[in-house]
Amino acid sequence: MLLLHQQFVKNAKRLSKKLAIIDKTTGSKVPYSKALIGALILVSKFRQYDKGFIGIMVPTSAGCTLASVATLMSGRIPVMINYSTGAENNVEYARKKCKFKTVITSRSLLEKINCPAMEDMVMLEDIMDSVSTGDKLKAAIKSKLPASMILNNIHKGKEDDTAVILFTSGSEKDPKAVQLTHKNIISDIVNFSEHISIYETDVLLASLVFFHVFGLTVNLWVAMYMGMTMVTYANPLDFQTISNIARDEKPTIMVGTPSFFWGYLQKSEPGDFKTLRVMVAGADKCPDALREGWKKKHGVTLLEGYGATETSPVISTNTHEYNRPGSIGKIIPNVQVRIEHFETGKECAPGEVGKILIKGDIVMKGYFNDPGLTEQAFINGWYNTGDMGFMDTDGYLWHAGRFKRFVKIGGEMVSLVKVENTLEKHLSEGVACCVVDVADEVRGASIIATVTQEIDKNEIIKKLSEELSNIELPKKFLVIEELPMMNTGKIDFRSVTRIVQEMVADSSEEIVSEY
User: Fold this and answer.
1) In DSSP terms, which residues pair with 216 in a beta bridge?
2) What is the CB neighbour count within 10 angstroms for residue 132?
3) Mean pLDDT across 312-341
4) What digits encode the pLDDT tens for the residues 14-28?
């Protein structure tokens, strides 16, 4: 098996004239031949730093792509650092967790996010300024050598070597340092690409951040491993610009989160995204209205998929041939899924909700320097995703929510996601919701619904009562005008729960149903 950086070299030699990256933030176009020269220049610079880990904190761009590739080529391991919220704290957290010093970043990024330059931060601008004519000439000469000779002059390594450290989102607890190997990521790319039909000739619109697995694997490494052209843009929240890029560059593949796709749908003109052949939403539930909106405005079928940081990430996805809206699709090849009863540990029957467990080459090596946490993540050799779901009789996987988003009331397991989905259907357009549970010493758990605008509570409860049992009905509705979000576009449940707890504590009202 050629490792990730080795496959990049092979593609760069074979597809030298083809565009590797169209960077819409900087306006640069980088053919594979130039990408290889750039990576070789960075390799010579990165070899000056300590062996082991190198932090990378650079927005989605040609620069971040080549820095990631060059880190592996130099024999180091990239630690991808979240810069969108609390960048300074995230750098310190990553350094403490993984014991490294050097962080590759950008002065322009630090200025934009108001993060101070920290010790052992190396600016990409300074690296590029330090590149001499001799450096360029040496790298250009090396790039002309046969692929076999270039591969002999860069890091070799093994398929089970760690290829990246990524941190989980921390929406429920402190971020964990996930070790993904070359084999993990390559297995996911190969099997996902076969499952949903992705080819070298595709043009991929890459706007997701590379410090999350969805962006790193399905934007950066899918493109570089498959030899595609990748169109990068640094800000996925710039909905208007992304829509303009899609119209101008005519991509055929795009993945993202439902919250981002809502933004693109609202800001785009009909037909802006009409060239998309494969469009996959992941990381959060995909509402029917979003699917319908994309079909109506752009004639594009929005497919829903499922994955986790620890599984590189893709586990399942709908395809054009096998698409069951509402489900998270069929399992990709060479991956096993077991639905296990949360109490008995027995395998669930079709349609029965249980824990989603995974086996296969896509499953992580483990959490870095945390054997105890790694052991907890596995059940008899199966990775426990922490999600609940069921398999239907036709082999489609359905997501029922995080295990932690189930609450035991009156001896029954109640899905907060089910309550949320039902509530969502009866809210006016533009009103978002999030359902959490709050513990009460006397009555136990209570379901609280938060909405972004005032609603007719009595009318909503009347409608919910037709679809939900009494124990599933929210006991209180609270207004939070702007629900806190993670940078992935997911709702930050920890923050919502904390806000609700504070609002309830400040209120003299008891949490009881008035309906």
Assistant:
1) none
2) 9
3) 97
4) 999 999 999 999 999
